[in-house]
Amino acid sequence: MKILIAAGGSGGHIFPAIALGRALKAADKGADLLFVGSNKALDRRLFEKEGVRFSLLTANKLPYGISLRLVPFTAKLLYDVVKSFFIILRYKPDAVIGFGGYVSFPVNAAAYVLRVPKVVHEQNVVPGRANKALFALADKVAISFEDTLKYLGENAGKAVLTGNPIRAEILKDDRAGGIRLFGLDSNKFTLLVIGGSQGAHVLNETFVNALRAMDPKDKEGLQVIHITGARDYEWALKAYRDAGIAHRVHSFIDRIEEAYAASDLVVTRSGASAIFELALLGRPMILVPYPFAMSHQKENAAAFSRNGAALLLDEKTLSADVFKDAVLTLSGNKDKLNSMGIAARKLSLPNASQTLARTVCAVAESGKN
Known about the structure:
Blueprint: E1 2-6, H1 11-27, E2 32-38, H2 41-50, E3 54-57, H3 70-91, E4 95-98, H4 104-113, E5 118-122, H5 129-134, E6 140-143, E7 159-161, H6 175-181, E8 189-194, H7 201-212, H8 216-220, E9 222-227, H9 233-243, E10 246-250, H10 256-262, E11 265-268, H11 272-280, E12 285-287, H12 297-306, E13 310-312, H13 320-331, H14 334-348, H15 352-368
Parallel strand pairs: 1-2, 1-4, 2-3, 4-5, 5-6, 6-7, 8-9, 8-11, 9-10, 11-12, 12-13
Helix pairs in contact: 1-2, 1-15, 3-4, 6-10, 7-9, 7-13, 11-14
């Protein structure tokens, strides 16, 4: 079986693709995989770290609205479509799967013209722009949320609920080991704050202000692992030292599973990959969706909130007091945290990688008949 996997531009697209690749290899050791990503440094680093064969297209982004930026976008798109034709003609895949984002479009468009069977995977509740354009061309549409069905229209009949594939290392859930790695106190309640993603300065700043507003007695029972991103690291580290609370501040953590393991409650944006990883571990979450154009995070967070797996906080009404009250209320309610964790696990679809692998293989086989 020869499978071409198109995923690039962000870890949120690439990590599920890598998880799928591993599942395909586990099912068939002779499976031949080719990844296609963007020429961002992140894509190259992740593919090289995984040790997979890959080709790279440009890091192109469709502008919002009509503007002169459409001219260079279109030129790059045409280049990438032509390059995708040559990649597919040389590789001769039995099937192509795209994980959304720009890279999926030229690869799937070329595959459609060349009559290669295609699967499109949608991670979010509301489909992204590239995937919306690709659903009509796909043989199957793999979805992570049941709620996505209502956005598929006439393509709903192609849908398969697979869930979002998760890498195996995420499953190493050892709280004692995680606490030890970070040099923290196993008797304290551990908050993990993931503020290192796009547009997370407001989240970082408001959360730190919430800690400052806590009474010293409340701070005694808490400890925080905070991933700030490079831009906010210096001031956040100083603020934590001044706040008088046990902390470990990092600009980035390469092995995020170790931070997951140490946590009792996680504060994060609501990108699909992160929340499904946390759901699989049964971690209760406070979700603050990225609020700007076409992020789709609000709908992801709403789905988790409706099912009792997370507390949704709207950035538009977010304040230090709102954050403080949410953290203190949940950290003091063990039954609520347990019920949120159970609800999260129900949403995780733990066999997502295997289910998606079977779907891709079935599409590939149907193309041979």
